[in-house]
C-alpha cells in the first residue's frame, strides 16, 4: 500500500486575518457572527477598577472587554481555512498585537463612527508594518451617518485603502468585509501562510 500523501488528503491552506479596532467597535461580535465554529473568547467583566483607564464614552452599557483575543474559523470550499483573530481594543492590551499579527494575510480595522478616533492606533499599526488592511464602518443603530469620503478624509487614508459599510452582527455583512480584505491583500501581493501541516 502507498501511504504517501495524495491530493485527496491535502490539507487546506491557512489564511490568518486580524479583526482590529478601538474598544467597543464590534470586533468580538463580528468574529462570532461569521465563524462557523463556536468562537474562543477571552472576555472579562469591566469593573470599577478600570473606570479611570477605560473610556466608555459612547459604549457605557458595554459589560465586558477582550483581554487577549477572539478566535473563529471559516472554511472556504475545503481549499482554504480562514482563521480570524479579534484583537483587544484597549491600549493596555496592545502588547499582544505583535504576536497576533505574525503570519497574517491582512487586517480588518473595524470603526465605530461614534468614536472614529479610536481606530487611529490600529491604522497606524498596520501602516507601519505594511500589513494590508481595509476599514469597515460598523453601522450602529442611531449613529450619525458619515459618507465614505468624509471618513477617508478624517482618517487620512490613501485612495487605495478600501472602506466598506458593515453590520458586525450579520454574517453576510462580515463575510463581504472579509472578501474585500482578501481581494485587497492579493492586489498587494500578499500570500496565505501556506498549507497546514
Q: Concise description?
A:
This protein is of the alpha/beta class. The protein has 5 helices and 8 strands; from the N terminus they run βαβββαβαβαβαβ. Strands 1, 2, 3, 4, 5, 6, 7 and 8 form an 8-stranded mixed β-sheet that branches.
Describe this structure in words.
With 197 residues, the chain is α/β, with parallel strands linked by helices. The protein contains 5 helices and 8 strands. It has helices at 27-34, 97-101, 120-128, 148-155, 171-188; strands spanning 13-21, 40-45, 64-76, 80-86, 104-112, 133-138, 163-166, 194-195. Strands 1, 2, 3, 4, 5, 6, 7 and 8 form an 8-stranded mixed beta sheet that branches. Helix 1 crosses helix 5. The mean pLDDT is 78.
What structural class is derived from the secondary structure elements? Answer: alpha/beta
N-end to C-end Cα span:
22 Å
- Total number of beta strands: 8
Supply Rg: 17 Å
Question: What are the defining features of this structure?
Answer:
197 residues, alpha/beta, 8-stranded mixed beta sheet, 5 helices, 24% helix, globular
Amino acid at each position: 500500500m502507498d501511504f504517501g500523501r495524495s491530493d485527496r488528503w491535502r490539507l487546506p491552506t491557512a489564511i490568518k486575518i486580524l479583526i482590529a479596532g478601538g474598544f467597543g467597535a464590534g470586533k468580538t461580535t463580528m468574529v462570532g457572527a461569521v465563524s462557523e465554529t463556536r468562537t474562543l473568547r477571552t472576555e472579562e467583566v469591566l469593573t470599577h477598577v478600570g473606570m479611570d483607564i477605560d473610556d466608555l464614552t459612547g459604549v457605557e452599557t458595554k459589560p465586558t472587554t477582550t483581554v487577549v483575543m477572539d478566535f473563529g474559523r471559516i472554511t472556504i470550499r475545503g481549499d482554504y481555512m480562514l482563521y480570524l483573530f479579534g484583537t483587544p481594543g484597549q491600549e493596555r492590551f496592545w502588547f499582544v498585537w505583535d504576536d497576533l499579527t505574525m503570519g497574517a494575510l491582512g487586517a480588518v480595522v473595524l470603526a465605530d463612527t461614534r468614536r472614529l478616533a479610536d481606530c487611529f492606533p490600529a491604522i497606524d499599526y498596520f501602516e507601519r508594518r505594511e500589513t494590508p488592511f481595509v476599514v469597515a464602518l460598523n453601522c450602529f443603530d442611531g449613529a450619525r451617518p458619515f459618507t465614505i469620503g468624509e471618513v477617508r478624509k478624517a482618517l487620512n487614508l490613501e485612495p487605495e485603502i478600501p472602506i466598506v459599510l458593515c453590520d458586525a452582527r450579520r454574517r453576510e455583512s462580515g463575510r463581504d468585509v472579509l472578501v474585500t480584505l482578501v481581494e485587497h491583500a492579493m492586489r498587494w501581493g500578499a500570500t496565505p501562510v501556506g498549507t497546514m501541516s
